[in-house]
Specification:
With about 180 residues, this protein is mostly helical. It is built from 6 helices and no strands.
């Protein structure tokens, strides 16, 4: 993300982080009773992860194109928000066409590899939006394994989006974490 971010983009990221954390907490909760379909336990969890992906994607769009991009017809007066699928597709299109407004997502030189990585995550998030809807609106979840993999991918995507600004003094995020805890 850029050095200076729009207030609304920060709010969206904060909301995404809160959804992510609640989803992680949900992964750790024990079963209350025996269920006929154990995967329904993870319906709210996958819904929260889908919400997180949507909000982080919206944050990127708001940073690039302004607050009106969150709304249907790009009109703030319309007061109807775009859904997650629309946001993911909008960001994918901007990255595919090399729109300069989203260039903050990568370093200026040799960015094709980073673009491909981000597009890979966005393709997964497109599927996640369907899982989110099933989880939140129909109570249909997924296996715990899929929920854990999804959580990891959202974490990796969040790091990818922030990566151009995260490395300092030749140190990557992972080496700084290792150094901090070793």
């Amino acid at each position: 993300m850029p050095k200076f971010m729009k207030d609304r983009a920060i709010e969206l990221i904060d909301g995404g982080i809160e959804s992510y954390l609640l989803g992680l907490y949900g992964l750790t909760l024990p079963f209350v009773k025996r269920k006929k379909n154990s995967e329904s336990k993870y319906a709210p969890v996958i819904g929260l992860f889908g919400t997180c992906a949507e909000l982080i994607t919206k944050a990127c769009l708001v940073q690039a194109f302004g607050i009106s991009v969150m709304y249907k017809k790009n009109d703030r007066n319309h007061k109807v928000y775009k859904n997650g699928t629309e946001c993911v597709e909008k960001l994918k299109k901007a990255i595919d066409t090399d729109d300069q407004a989203v260039s903050f997502l990568w370093e200026k030189e040799n960015h094709t590899e980073r673009k491909d990585e981000i597009l890979g995550y966005l393709n997964k998030f497109r599927l996640l939006q369907d899982m989110r809807a099933n989880g939140l609106h129909a109570g249909k979840g997924c296996s715990r394994d899929i929920a854990v993999v999804t959580a990891n991918e959202i974490g990796e995507f969040s790091f990818q989006v922030q990566a151009p600004r995260r490395s300092y003094a030749g140190m990557t995020h992972q080496t700084s974490v290792r150094r901090k805890y070793n």
